[in-house]
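Retro notes, item 3 of 5
We never archived the inputs for the pyridoxal-5'-phosphate complex last cycle. Fixing that now. Sequence and ligand:
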Amino acid sequence: MQQLANRLERLGTETAFSVAQAAAAWKAQGNRVFPFHLGDINIPTAPHIVEAMNRAIADGYTGYCPGPGIPQLREALAEDLGSRRGISFSPDNVVVMTGGKPVITKFLQAVMNPGQEVLYPNPGFPIYESQIEYLGGTAVPYRYLPTSEGFAIDLDQVRASITPNTVAIIYNDLQNPISAESTAAEREAIAQLAQEHDLWVLSDEAYFETRYEGVSSSIASLPGMAERTVILYTFSKKFAMTGSRLGCAVAPLEIAKVLSTLNTNDESCTTHYVQWAGIEALRGPQEPVQHMLDILRGRRDAACELVNSIPGMHVAVPQSTFYLFPDVTDAMERMGYTAVGDFATEALYKTGVSFCTREHFGRRQPGEERQYIRLAYSGIDVADIRDGLGRLR
Ligand code: PLP
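Structure as it came back at the time:
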């Protein structure tokens, strides 16, 4: 009998996509669905970016191109990302990829041997846990503690979890799913631990510019950090380009070279004409970015107001990302639910409101008692937010 590879037992996935499937099936049966499940964006990519992509196709940029990306895009990325972070990057530090997600796998392939440990945020983007384990490492979670303003990393747990076998820490400031944002002190504490223990850092900056107040700051800009940090950057969220699959790693030169070779092995290159659209996104008009943020801010306000009007649900108003991560423990208790998955399933079938829960973002840690759901408001208009969450209430 033919067999599949043993390592597949360790492969996780992004289960938000199965929630999307359940919602689509319910909709196909003629039911109304309010989609809060996926961090996709129902605002189209700006016309000038689409035109640049079409022009590139018409001009014949449809063949292979260099593995680490076309020089013009690498240059634009080094300039844009460097200036927004106060760091001087060379185009050689930039490796273009098919979105932000491949940076996670390739970073781990570059720095982690089987049996070594990597710290990762939990709840967090589920691909961290999946890929660490798939590649034979040990995924060591660190938690966030609720505060009056949102959430803060449990630094004591991070400290206690580092062993001589730890090689890296994954850090996602402006966090999915909980929208946590580090204070400067928290960022410095993580940087200090990384230096003390000689760890690599994957700084997932997918939402660096998806923020409503203030400006973001990268851990890579702290003294001694650029040489040990790989930045994950993506066009997906900032430019509403989720399906175009364009992102990059910005990495110290020795890692950038390895990432480029991994690209050549895995994809040959990132889609050639999409890279020209990326240059236009970075260098062209920036008004659509602000316009999208204004729309998202209106949705956030509507969603927070409604969530906080539901007895037994609570969320602090986040200043970044497009996710809410309300504590629903008391609401579930009032209605007699013990499993958050049952709560989500019944919410879909009784109200049409579709969302992920804490269970979609890495395995639960011991002692974790509160129940949370994640509401993504990037793919749903204000009127439907009010209608859907009104029904949920
Ligand atoms: N990192 C985080 C925290 C994300 O939320 C996502 C997407 O939702 C990604 C990485 C992957 O981004 P991309 O769609 O560009 O691959």
